[in-house]
Amino acid sequence: MSATLPDIACGRLSLAEYAKNFSDAHPPLTPVQARLEADRCYYCFDAPCTVACPTGIDIPTFIARIAQDNLRGAARTILEENILGGMCARVCPTEVLCEEACVRNTAEEKPVEIGLLQRFATDAYFAKPGAPMFTRALASGRTVAVVGGGPAGLACAHRLAMLGHAVVLFDAKPKLGGLNEYGIATYKTTGGFAQKEVDWLLSIGGIEVRSKQQLGHDIHLDTLVKDFDAVFLGLGLAGVNGIGAAEPAASGAPPLRAAVDFIAELRQANPAQVAVGRKVVVIGGGMTAVDAAVQSRLLGAEDVTIVYRRGPEGMSASGHEQDWAQTNGVKIKHWAAPKEVVAVGGHVKGMRFARTRLEGGKLVETDGHFTLDADVVLKAVGQTFVAEPVGAAAHGTEPIRLALDRGALATDADGQTSHPKIWAGGDCRAGGRDLTVEAVEHGKVAAIAIDRRLRA
Ligand SMILES: Cc1cc2nc3c(=O)[nH]c(=O)nc-3n(C[C@H](O)[C@H](O)[C@H](O)COP(=O)(O)OP(=O)(O)OC[C@H]3O[C@@H](n4cnc5c(N)ncnc54)[C@H](O)[C@@H]3O)c2cc1C
Ligand code: SF4
What we know:
There is one protein chain. The protein is α/β, with parallel strands linked by helices. It has helices at about 15-20, 30-40, 50, 60-65, 70-80, 85-90, 100, 105-110, 115-125, 150-160, 180, 195-200, 220-225, 260-270, 285-300, 320-325, 390, 435-455, and strands spanning about 10, 145, 165-170, 205-210, 230-235, 240, 255-260, 275, 280-285, 305, 330-335, 335-345, 345-360, 360-375, 375-380, 385, 405, 410, 420-425. The relative contact order is 0.15. The site of flavin-adenine dinucleotide has 39 residues, from helix 10, helix 14, helix 15 and helix 18. Flavin-adenine dinucleotide (FAD) binds near residues 153 and 389.
């Protein structure tokens, strides 16, 4: 172990290096590149890429429109199924969705670059939106409360507004967007894109935004159910799992930081003002672990290691994301479980791990141990749904108890919860894959179901 004092500092790099490191990770296609890429599409009948898209975008049609230089038409095909198609073009793990299904993989081992084409079409539209693309139906006279302004809540609110309902959109945070604004890695969504997309989405009208309104504190579900014709919950996952090993409280060192908090700080700050350790260890195996590790490197950390309990195939970060981490100089150590934070004089100095292996299909720790030096240890071992705000009632009234399934909100396929007036979607709904695109689909499907119910 190093005997030096902790070295957690901001301003490790020059301004030019920060600008380069936090620029667009996957620069957009030029018009010529987009045309050439669009020409690679076979315009398949029953296109497998469309089947693999959680929002069911008609991919061959939007690609054909790019080939015909009808970019507004291409963007419309995308946005009518996925109102956050601009953000999804940047953040979707296409390598395990549409592009994995593309038939070009068989012939050439290289799919059509659907994500980049989607970005090309939506960027062109947002650069010059022109006349409104979506308009509202005649007012229905019904009002719906949407709680949570992340991808699920935004998609639900937009579709309800299109269908003629009046929407009040509540969010605990000052800005809308959910993890699009506070979670997605900076290099995936540059130039304030998340807020520009939110502003465009709200321009349809009929959506009243009430920010800094926390369910369970400023507003209560039982009151919303009385005051509105229906309620949609898109609350995301507010809790963070512990690492399953002692954290350093006894030594006087602060508790381990959640990777999501580090990422949220970075999304709202100038990278030059965000402190990072010289040696960083990230515990976890998902997208959050990869984003926290890569961004630590890009902030100037010298040595960054992701440590995961199982092998590479067990990680929820895709192979593409694991490669991305390694390309950025992040080391990944597999088959190791956190045992103990090493802290000296109130400062984190490292993390001790036990080696693991599979025995009869069960993960077990072996006798082998090792310690990694670190001034910062980030935990990224998953987030959880926090049910308390849902169950809290206004003073003196009966709380609403929604059924849970594996710790998240239980719903039917349309997102209806155990309460007849309440729907839910996105990460807070049980059984999802915790992807932006899936949250958008949940919001859209729930809005259509709510509309059907309100018109019955
Ligand atoms: C670090 C990180 C990186 C990720 N990267 C990707 C990626 O690259 N690609 C991808 O597809 N997915 C990614 N994901 C997953 C993706 O961001 C989520 O699946 C998606 O944002 C879920 O949308 P949501 O609307 O359900 O929840 P959220 O985006 O979490 O939004 C929930 C909203 O509800 C509000 N809220 C919460 N509690 C309350 C309350 N009590 N009262 C009022 N409002 C409340 C929050 O403020 C927030 O605005 C990432 C997740 C994380 C954590
Ligand atoms: S599967 Fe590939 S080639 Fe076929 S329509 Fe989709 S993008 Fe085009």
